[in-house]
Amino acid sequence: MDEPHAPLESPSWLAPVMVANFLIGLFWIVTFYVSETRYPVPGIGNWNMIVGFTFIGIGFSLATKWR
User: N or C: which end of the chain has fewer CB within 10 A?
Assistant: First the structure.
């Protein structure tokens, strides 16, 4: 007979890191649009969108691990 397993819990760092990634990505994209592409990194141009969405994607991947 199988023994009952303890409920799985997320590490305590997961939720803050997940939310931080969402917010950093959002801030990055908003800053890029509001500054008319001068910030956050002017030399990479539209790649700033990729950077912002990468942070958001990392947040989503962490959200799948949250219990």
Answer: N
pLDDT value at 56 more than 90: yes
**Polymer length in residues for the chain:** 67
* Model pLDDT for residues 29-52, shown as the tens digit of each residue: 999 999 988 888 889 999 999 999
| Maximum Cα–Cα distance across the chain | 64
Angle between helices 14-34 and 47-63 (to 10 degrees): 160
Work out whether the CA dihedral 26, 42, 37, 31 comes out positive or negative: positive
- Separation between Cα atoms, residue 23 and residue 17, nearest integer Å: 10
Cα–Cα distance, 16 to 63 (Å, whole number): 11
